[in-house]
Amino acid sequence: MNTASLVTLLQLAGLLHLGLVWAGATMPRAVNLGRHLAALPEFIRRLVWVYYTFIGFCLIGFGTVSFFFADTLASGVPLARAVCGFLCVFWMMRLIVAALVFDLRPYLTTRLRRAGYRAMNMVFALLPLIYGVAALKGVH
């Protein structure tokens, strides 16, 4: 794959991260998260929200770096390959978790939610491919 195509794919990956942030922002309402958390001790409620917020910041960071530094990530230099390798493993693990850990069927009550869930899983499958290609750039 040529560098220009890889840069475009990495920029797409950056935008996809922001799409995941948007999807994540809609999730608490869709699953009535506040009601479920209300039964938990205050510390645990706060812990869930802090983790949720930090995950959002990580996604924004991954997306921003991928979009604005796509040329550097596509360069094949060791640090770029390491970052892309990390992101490849991160998203591969997230895809596995989506498939084996979470059962969202009770929440997929509308066509829109089912379509969003399928789209999200497509993103989870696409991201490790993009970052995997970038991580392997320059390997002989």
Q: How many β strands by DSSP?
A: 0
Structural class: mainly alpha
Q: Any idea what the shape is?
A: elongated
User: Which range best describes the helical content: under 10%, 10-25%, 25-40%, 40-55%, 55-70% or over 70%?
Assistant: over 70%
Describe the structure.
This protein is mostly helical. It has one domain (3-135). It is built from 6 helices and no strands. Helix 1 runs antiparallel to helix 3 (42-68) and helix 5 runs antiparallel to helix 6 (111-136).
Characteristic key phrases:
single chain; 140 residues; mainly alpha; 6 helices; 81% helix; elongated
Task: Put the structure in a nutshell.
With 140 residues, the protein is an all-alpha fold. Helices cover 81% and strands 0% of the residues. It has helices at residues 3-30, 33-38, 42-68, 70-73, 78-100, 111-136.
